[in-house]
Design a protein that fits this description.
Layout (H helix, E strand, L loop, with lengths): L7 H28 L1 H6 L22 H15 L2 E6 L2 E6 L2 H8 L15 H4 L8 H11 L5 H6 L1 H15 L7 E2 H18 L8 H22 L6 H4 L3 H33 L7 H5 L15 H5 L6 H7 L10 H10 L7 H14 L2 H16 L1 H15 L8 H6 L1 H13 L5 E5 L4 E2 L6 E2 L4 E5 H4 L19 H4 L20 H18 E4 L9 E4 L1 E4 L4 E6 L7
Parallel strand pairs: 2-7
Antiparallel strand pairs: 1-2, 3-11, 4-7, 5-6, 8-11, 9-10
The structure holds protoporphyrin IX containing FE (HEM).
The site of protoporphyrin IX containing FE has 22 residues, from α17, α18 and α24.
InterPro entries: Cyt_P450 (IPR001128), Cyt_P450_CS (IPR017972), Cyt_P450_E_grp-I (IPR002401), Cyt_P450_sf (IPR036396), Cytochrome_P450_Monoox (IPR050196)
Family: Belongs to the cytochrome P450 family.
Protein name: Cytochrome P450
Length: 558
């Protein structure tokens, strides 16, 4: 009996053979893959069982941001502080041991960001956060000095005015339960518009508000591209409604940055023609005396905490040349481009301003919101903070000075501890261009893999913090920090690519929080065990930062 090539029997056999051939092909591919160097090295590291071709990617699909955090925590409980995962054929290694983290972050070689940062590219271009190589080096060298302590001191007034304004805005909330992040986010953008772009409250029109909203929504889109697996593919993303939304938002964001840069440049040139020239970056960097370091009593607690990975920010401050007129970061960049100290084009300036606006926004908004919630829970710690503030200010409601911030030692410990337990940037990711050997078990991580540093997990290592899940500002008493591994505390990352805004952020947080806490007591009825966290690029509470505020006793103006 013959089987005709039209018959159902023939089709059945054909399908069977095709399926067998495909399975054999996939199996051979899988076996070949597994024997490759990358797989051999990767599979030495513990991690969940991977499915052929997909690796571990299927377990992440469909997870919401808070479920994703829980999953990551579950695997770190099972496999420890070095865990591998396969994203298809891509090796991802999660690190949470300070010794291993130091190998990566302290290196001048492993400075490339992971491919996921490309989602920021349409917004931030080749700004400091994502650029690499020579471009990153030269821009970092140019931008780090704009965060010089003298420039920061000149922002104290802006921080104070905005802190006062948010206290006023929060007044109608007295006695109610509300999400304090809304307020922290708003005030942070206002401060950034002023300090990064030089747009003051008076000169801000509707576009400032639209810009702030657009920044917040763009963060959300980038986050969606991280956890909605299909949106990772540019071809699919470009067909989605999210892409259309992104285009609209970028028009708003880039529209304002371009407009401001254009105006500022025109003003600079007009002034220059009149002989009015602002102080130059070069002036700031030309220290009359290299030994003129900041006196010890003007060093903050965090200067000590972060001294282990001394970065270019410290070098800046040693070149202290006295207080200067206030200039926004943008003014400084325009000035340095115009006087040809630095080669930077208008579009590169735009990328750097957009980067600062992004990096400086939700990080501090989330950081300050966590502090207010934690103090709302731990009333005895809030009492200590208030006692310290009362010692500094008495009953006066005068503005905070830079020197006052140096005296806020306990508040600083509270901020550092809050950043330990709830680091606004919960993961830092790098792409490895070369093999690297880490300390744990001498594992060799092959070039081409992605390293993910889990700040959240690292900061809760019982080897370095006695009761890691307990909110205890005393973790930052000098006697407790001096023998701790420096890389066990990296809320601002560390090494050459550390956060350039660290000192700015800490100064702003102290002024903002002290002003709020002098006016209100915060109260929270939700204990930390019930916080529902989500890594929305920035770590936040999925359940909202809900607190109540009660007015402090009436103060008298001096
Ligand atoms: C509590 C507040 C902040 C936290 C926790 C924080 C944390 C971080 C972290 C962890 C990184 C490294 C990111 C990575 O490698 O993926 C970073 C980079 C950066 N941050 Fe911050 N940041 C804060 C505030 C700020 C502020 C206020 C600014 C600017 C005004 C700023 C500007 C930057 C910039 C430009 C970079 C890129 C630096 C480079 O790659 O050279 N940050 N920040």
């Amino acid at each position: 009996m013959s089987i005709s090539d039209e018959s159902p029997e023939y089709n059945k056999w054909l399908s069977f053979y095709l399926l067998c051939s495909l399975s054999t092909l996939l199996w051979t591919l899988y076996v070949w893959q597994q024997s490759s160097r990358k797989y051999r090295l990767g599979n030495k590291i513990p991690g969940p069982t991977a499915v052929p071709l997909f690796g571990n990617v299927l377990m992440a699909i469909g997870k919401t941001p808070d479920q994703f955090i829980n999953l990551a925590m579950k695997y770190s409980e099972i496999y420890g502080n070095v865990v591998r995962g396969w994203f298809g054929s891509k090796l991802i290694v999660f690190l949470a041991e300070p010794e291993d983290v130091e190998v990566i972050l302290n290196s001048q070689v492993h400075i490339d960001k992971a491919p996921e940062y490309r989602f920021f590219k349409p917004w931030l271009g080749e700004g400091l956060l994502i650029s690499t190589g020579q471009k990153w080096r030269s821009h970092r060298k140019m931008i780090a000095p704009t965060f010089h302590i003298n420039i920061l001191k000149s922002f104290v007034d802006v921080f104070n005015q905005n802190a006062k304004s948010v206290v006023d805005k929060m007044r109608p909330e007295v006695g109610k339960t509300f999400d304090v992040h809304d307020y922290m986010s708003g005030v942070t953008v206002d401060i950034l518009l002023e300090t990064a772009m030089g747009i003051t409250r008076k000169t801000q029109d509707e576009s400032g508000f639209d810009y702030a909203m657009a920044v917040m929504k763009m963060c959300d889109i980038i986050h969606q591209r991280h956890y909605k697996f299909w949106l990772r593919f540019d071809s699919i993303f470009k067909l989605s409604s999210v892409f259309k939304k992104q285009k609209e938002l970028l028009n708003i964001i880039h529209g304002l940055t371009n407009k401001v840069i254009k105006n500022k440049k025109e003003i600079y040139l007009e002034n220059k023609a009149k002989g009015i020239i602002p102080p130059t970056l070069a002036e700031l960097m030309q220290a009359p005396n290299i030994d003129n370091v900041l006196a010890n009593d003007s060093k903050t607690l965090s200067d000590t905490v972060f001294k282990g990975y001394r970065d270019d920010l410290d070098l800046n401050d040693e070149n202290d040349v006295g207080q200067k007129k206030r200039l926004a970061f943008l003014d400084l960049m325009i000035e340095s481009a115009q006087n040809e100290t630095n080669k930077i084009s208008d579009s590169e300036i735009k990328e750097e301003v957009d980067t600062i606006m992004f990096e400086g926004h939700d990080t501090t908004a989330a950081g300050s919101s966590f502090v207010l919630c934690l103090l709302g829970i731990h009333q005895h710690i809030q009492d200590e903070v208030y006692k310290e503030l009362h010692e500094i200010f008495g009953d006066s409601d005068r503005q905070v000075t830079f020197d006052d911030t140096l005296r806020m030692k306990y508040l600083e410990r509270v901020i550092l501890e809050s950043l330990r337990m709830y680091p606004p940037v919960p993961i830092i990711a790098r792409h490895l261009n070369r093999d690297v050997k880490i300390v744990t078990n001498n594992y060799l991580l092959p070039a081409g893999s992605t390293v993910v540093i889990g700040t959240y997990k690292l900061h809760r290592n019982p080897k370095h913090y006695k009761n890691p899940d307990e909110f205890n500002p005393d973790n930052f008493l000098p006697e407790n920090t001096q023998n701790r591994h420096y890389y066990s505390y990296i809320p601002f990352s560390a090494g050459p690519r550390s956060c350039v805004g660290r000192k700015y952020a800490l100064l702003k947080l102290k002024i903002l929080l002290s002003t709020i806490l002098r006016s209100y007591r915060t109260v929270s009825d939700i204990p930390e065990e019930q916080f529902s966290l989500k890594a929305d690029i920035i770590l936040k509470r999925a359940d909202g930062f809900r607190i109540r505020i009660e007015p402090r006793k009436k103060t008298t103006t001096v």
